[in-house]
Amino acid sequence: MASDQPPDDPPGPPARLGAPAPTGAQSSGSVDVAAQSSGSIDVAVDVAAPSSGAIDVAIDGAVGAVAAAADVSGPTADAILVAVGASGQASGQASGRAAGRRRRATTASVITDRVVQAADRVAELTDRVGGKIGDVVGESLTILPGVPRTRRGRVLARGVVVGFCLVFAWISVIVGLQLRGRHPPDFRPNAERIFVQLRDGAFEEVYDASSERFQEIVLEDTFVAKMTDLNQSLGRFREVTSVISTETNRGPGGQTGRVDVRLAFDRAATRGSVSFRREAGAWKLLGLSVEVPPELAKVVGSAEARRDRVEGNRIELRGLVNDVITRSFDGDVDAVYQDAAEGFRESITLEDFQRTERERHAALGAFVRVLDVTWARISPNKTSTSVDCLIEFKNYTVKGSFKFVKIDGVWRLALYTLKMPLPRVPG
Q1: More confident of the two residues 102 and 165
Q2: Per-residue buried b or exposed e for 196-212, using 16+ beta carbons within 10 Å of the residue's own CB
Q3: Whole-model pTM?
Q4: 69, 72, 78, 81 alpha-carbon torsion, rounded to 10°
Q5: Tell me: the pLDDT tens digits for 209-240?
Q6: Do residues 257 and 279 touch, judged by C-beta distance below 8 A?
C-alpha cells in the first residue's frame, strides 16, 4: 500500500557526549533527551512529529553523568548513543502508542555491553589457540595408517580394541594374584642369630634349639667339630650382607624353608644357606652349609693346614693319660672301667680288665710320670683323638697308646695299651 507521506528525511547527525541537544527539530519529529543527575536518561517523544518516518534524537550535555555513573570512559563513553528509527507506517503507529510515555535507560546496558565485548575477545583468543593445537594434532594424526571404511575394516578395528582390552585384563589378573599371594617368611634374622651363636662358641645351644630331624641325622659332637673347623677356616663371623633367595616347601616331612645368603667373615666373603623346618609353630634349624672361596681353599687345603687341623692338643692329652694311669695304679680300676666309652667296655669285660691291670702293676712297678707325648692327632670332626707317649714306671719306661672319644662334651677312654718289656733271660 502506497503511503501519502513524503520520503523519510535522513536523521540528523548524532550528538557527541557533552554537546548541547539541537533545538528547533519539531519539523522533523525530534526527541528531547535530558540527563538527570540520578544517572538515568529521560526520553520524551513528541507526538506532534510530522509525517516524516525518522525521529531525531538529541542528547543533552549532562549525559556525561551517565558515563561517569557507569564507570565508562574513553571511546566507549563517547559511543553511548540513543537512536530510535522507524519506517513510514510504523512511525505513525509508534507515535500514537507512545503518547506521553517515558522510557528509562539505566547503566546496566552499558555494563552488559562491556561484558559482551570481553566475551568476544576471549572467544577470539580461544579460536586462535584452539586452531593452532588442532593443526598440530592434525599433522600428527596424518601419519597414522588409515583403515578402509568397509565392513572388514570395522571388524579389524573392533578386533584391535577387544585385543587390547583382553591383554590389559589378563595383566591385571596376574598382578592382582601376585599381590594377593603369600610372601615367604623372612629367614634373615634367624640365620644371622645362628651364625652369631656359632661365632661365640655356643654350639650346644644351637644344637639343642635345632629341629628333631636335624638331631636325628647329625651327632652333637660332629656338629661341634665341624662348626669349630668353620670358625678356624673362615675366621670370625661378621654379618649377613644380603639375602639371595628365599623359598618354602610343604611335603610329607612337613613345612620346610631355605634361605641363601651372602656372608662376611674376617678372612673372606662367601655364600651360605640355612634350612629350617616348621615345628611347634616355630622355624628350627634343619641344615647349614657354607662355601669356602677357592682362593681360601688353597690355603686351608694345603698339607700344612691339614696337619694343623688334625694336630692334637698335647697338653690336654698328657693330662688325660696321666689321670687314667694314676687312677688305675692307685687301685681304682673299676672307676676307670665305668668311666670309659661304651665301645671300650664292649671290647673287654671288667674281670679281664682287672686281671690285666694286676699283671701290669706287678711287672712295671709304681707309676712315676708321663715323660713325653710323641704323637697326637685329632679327627677333623673333633670327636676323637689319639696319643702316643713315653711313660716312666719304677721298673721300666714303656710306650703307651691311648684313644679318647668325646661324648656329651667329655673325653672318655676308648683304647688303652702299654707295650710291656720282654722278660729277661736268666744268666
Answers
A1: 165
A2: ebbbeeebeebbeebbe
A3: 0.43
A4: -60
A5: 999 999 999 988 788 888 888 888 898 999 99
A6: no
